[in-house]
Amino acid sequence: MRPFKRKRGEASEVVLERMGEKDGIKVAKRKQRLEVLAAKVHHLKEKGLAEDPREDDVESPFFNFLKQKDALPAHTNFLESELRSLFADLQQYVPEAPRRGRKNVIHWRDAVLYLLMMYKGNRKIKELSSLGGRTTGTVNAAILRMRPVLHAYLSKRWIENPARPDAQVIGLQDGNEVAACYDHTFTKIGRPVGSFDDAKRFYDVKHKCYAFKKAVVVSGMHPHYAVMFGKAIPGAKHDYVDLKENYKMLLPYLERVKEEKDKTAENKRGLEGKEGKEEKRRASKSSLFSSSSSTTLASSLSSSWKCSFDKGYVGPEADTPGLRKYMPIKSAQSAEDHYHNKKWSQTHVIERYFGRMKQLWGITAERYRLTSETLDQDFENCALLTNAHIKYHQLTPDDETFYLVWKAEISQEADDKAASLRLKRTRHSFVEQARAMGLEAFGEAGSPTFVK
Predict the structure, then answer these.
(1) How far apart are CA 407 and CA 10, in angstroms?
(2) Is residue 123 one of the residues assigned to a domain?
(3) What share of the chain in percent tops pLDDT 90?
(4) DSSP assignments along 303-322, one per residue
(5) What pLDDT digit, counting tens, does each position of 101-123 carry?
(6) In-domain check, residue 400
(7) What Cα–Cα distance (Å) separates residue 327 from each residue in 133, 226, 337?
(8) Which pLDDT value is given to residue 12?
(9) Contact criterion met (CB below 8 Å) for 438 and 450
């Protein structure tokens, strides 16, 4: 509505009358908006969606639409109650709507839903806009607005204040003292634009695809949340090289604080007491625990916890000073070696975490189509959302199986593509040779047909 202006030479009585008319129009429009809102609430009551329709149901039509269709778990991986809990925690991180200028067309809750749907199905913006009945520009602006907000909340929730290792749990695991698991996983990308030398930096020879790789640290304690991430690196860079350059980020988390040292020592002394005799009797069956008590106690009171790695991170201690590694034994021969590797496989659960993440969020399992500037935030958002999912649904061995099968399929797909390309080149070579010899084609039995 235009601002009120007094006309030249207009009497005061007329001015007051016009002001009253304008105020009346404002009141009428406000009343009309309230009536529309009341009609929406009445419609919700008639549909029986809820006995007490919530404000967010009215303000977030896309959320309400998916809820009516009972499609929230299928499109977001979360139940309605889990999403409401996420919204309640996230609300304080959402910036207030601007008082002036263009308003946000999509409510922030609906923007989170669009973002979750993009993560889950690796959907394009055009597909999301058709599902929600919005323009591509509007949906893209909503995703750009909510991506850093969701990342700030999830980082505060899971990364800035991670759960410390529990000395009472870790200190009695056959002397392993594994507080974290470390490994890299990869995300496929298209061939980078540029010269061959520029593109080959991103080619992952092991998995036979162009990719970004990212280091992830998962807690060694149940339920195994992700607690730390490294920066994304090109696919050609070896995992161990990245560990040597950035291993210091692990040390603060693995450092054993005074309370944890005292608790570990108390647990060890408890093994000698009345309450610890049964635990010691069961643990004595293990060959690892049957070593001298002085060695076990000294290991328990070390200045830091151990971190679990796979065989790809074998290297001298001088490469990562201060980092205690717990690793499998290559070419295991004795029964003790096989037992050690068995205990390591039970402790190194990070592949279960990767399997759950790849199952939940297709954007991490399929080719990443967005720019490299958003890769770190999108990957970490998916990983930390996996933390939220694990809170309600624990990791299982099937998750690890999925991850191993997924990696095998990626390599098999690359092999099939290479074999098809070789076959095409071979056929093209035969055709060129035939033309050079004056042959028109080859028969089914291999007999040549000469050009007349």
Answers:
(1) 81
(2) yes
(3) 51
(4) SB-EEE--GGG---GGGSTT
(5) 777 889 999 999 999 999 999 99
(6) no
(7) 52, 19, 11
(8) 58
(9) yes
